[in-house]
Amino acid sequence: MHRCDMTQIFKFGGASLRDADDIRHLGHLMADFPGRPLVVVLSAMGKTTNALEALLDAARGNDEANYRERLENLRRDHLAIVGALFGSKASPVAQRVEALIAELDQHHRTLAKHARPFHYDQTIGFGELMSTTIVSAWLEASGIATRWQDARRLIVTDDCYQAANVDWAATTERLRELAWDDCRLLVTQGFLGGTQDGQTTTLGRGGSDYSAAILAHCLEAERVTMWKDVPGLFNADPRRFDNATQLEHISYAETIELAWHGAKVIHPKSLAPLQRKRIPLTVRSFKAPRTPGSTIDADPRHDGDVPIVILREAQILLTLYPRDFALMDEAHQHDILGHLVRVGVHASMIDSAAMRVSLCLDRPTGRLEALVEALSADYRVVRRNNLTLLTVRHPDDGLLEGLSAGRDCLAERRNADTAQRLFPGDQCPESWHLPT
Ligand code: ASP
Ligand code: MG
Fold first, then answer.
1. CA 191 to ligand 1: nearest atom
2. 207 Cβ below 6 A of ligand 1
3. Which residues belong to CATH 3.40.1160.10 in the chain?
4. What is the predicted pLDDT for the residue at 1?
């Protein structure tokens, strides 16, 4: 395989692709940034995927007027961007967008009777198909030799629709078969894959980060850069904490911990494929490309430098007491965890005592009701809603006490490197300050 430049992968998310100005900015960034990448992975523009989900519901609900209006909005918004970018030369790109909209419409007409996950995957990726069509044409028009690449023929998966599993060997093989010699920049869709026999699959919401990591892994890339609407990773969500500080450097293992505890930084599945090949990942600001960003790699030396704070809201606390006043021994704990596994609910914290187990669970879903019902056969279940789970990595006591002051701690768990406390949501502010 011939490599033209550094084997870097760039990924741009929907928040960096909202309008024509963003696409122009992307073009400048690609022209100016040192080290042109080999592959660019794109999400759908702005909130297009949400709009496609609503379109799907309208199609399946036989809500014809609503469906028509939503399809027309998608068409109009994308064509407006094409018009703004290409002006009098818009027609070839506009025709491709029109063709994608017609194909999407056709799919909805024929698939509404199929199972929803299949129908979902055959239609939800049109946001990515349109964004890559527009952006690759724009880059080409700006003088960057570009090739649009269909990710459905690149990332090979099983047929587990909406959460497809990657066939790593087959994907590596497909990438090897690609013609790299013409030095063109490959622009492809995040989020999408395809089965061996050509059905479209998706990797789960937010899966474009994962796509970039899959391609990097299989290509043995030197680096992945994810361009985001934040300048990097922070020790707390900068939208919620007025004095959060940026982390310059952090390890894969620490980042996986943060994602596990609910930090919305990078799609959690993206780290492992990079970690296995020791490919560094840099998160950078799309708006300020020259600022240093945050780098994630195998080096753990800076992980404990500052405490990292994660908030998880809309939590539910289920406290279980055995009806027969038995002790919460391993058999009972095994039984309780078995119920969680069966209904597919994740506990964000488990806190146990002699005659009680407390489970902190993510926001209510239909499955939660099934879980409570199943547990109620053997346990008295006390439920509290609307809680905020605070997780601190590398906690110091002053920080923990400062963040807890004036709030009732409903459950707590602590080990050598992580402390968690659960508070009533109505005692927690919208805007926080890290005590110093
Ligand atoms: N467009 C998809 C989503 O919004 C994938 C992504 O953005 O990563 O979930
Ligand atoms: Mg998206």
1. 5
2. yes
3. 8-229
4. 44
Q: Which of 10, 17, 43 to mutate for ligand 1's pocket (most ligand atoms within 8 Å of CB)?
A: 43
Residues 293 and 285 sit within 8 Å (Cβ to Cβ): yes
Which residues, at least 6 apart from 324, have a Cβ–Cβ distance to it below 8 Å? Answer: none
Report residue 2's pLDDT band, with 50, 70 and 90 as the boundaries: very low
Ligand 1: residue of 205, 210, 228 to mutate (most ligand atoms within 8 A of CB) is 205
Query: How many A from CA of 43 to the centre of ligand 1?
Result: 6
* CA atoms of 30 and 145, how far apart (whole Å): 11
Contact 117, 95 (CB under 8 A): no
* pLDDT attached to residue 312: 95
The identity of residue 94, as a single letter, is: A
Question: What spacing in Å lies between the alpha carbon of 18 and ligand 1's midpoint?
Answer: 13
Chain-wide mean pLDDT for the chain?
94
Q: How far apart, in whole angstroms, are the C-alpha atoms of residue 276 and residue 217?
A: 8
Ligand lying nearest the CA atom of residue 192: 1
125 ligand 1 Cβ < 6 A = no
Q: In DSSP terms, which residues pair with 40 in a beta bridge?
A: 10, 187
All CATH 3.30.2130.10 domain ranges in the chain, comma separated: 308-427
Looking at residue 67, its amino acid is: Y
Identify the CATH homologous superfamily for domain 308-427. VC0802-like (3.30.2130.10)
Question: What pLDDT, in 10s, does the model give residues 416-436?
Answer: 999 999 999 999 999 999 998
Distance between Cα 127 and ligand 2 center (Å): 8
Ligand 1: which atom is nearest the Cα of residue 206? 8
Instruction: Note the pLDDT of residue 264.
Output: 84
Which residue has 């649009």 as its token pair? Answer: 148
CA distances, 99 to each of 76, 103, 185, 273 (Å): 13, 6, 24, 35
> Ligand 1 pocket, 127 CB below 6 A?
yes
For the segment 176-191, the average pLDDT, to the nearest whole number, is 91
The length of the chain in residues reads 436
pLDDT band at 5 (very low <50, low <70, confident <90, very high): low
User: Which atom in ligand 1 lies closest to the alpha carbon of residue 210?
Assistant: 8
**Topology (CATH level 3) of domain 8-229:** Carbamate kinase (3.40.1160)
Our measurement of the distance from residue 432's CA atom to the centroid of its chain's CA atoms, rounded to an integer in Å, reads: 24
14 lines ligand 1 (CB under 6 A): yes
pTM of the model: 0.91
Residue nearest atom 6 of ligand 1, based on CA coordinates: 206
Q: List all residues 6 or more positions away from 61 whose beta carbon is below 8 Å from its beta carbon.
A: none
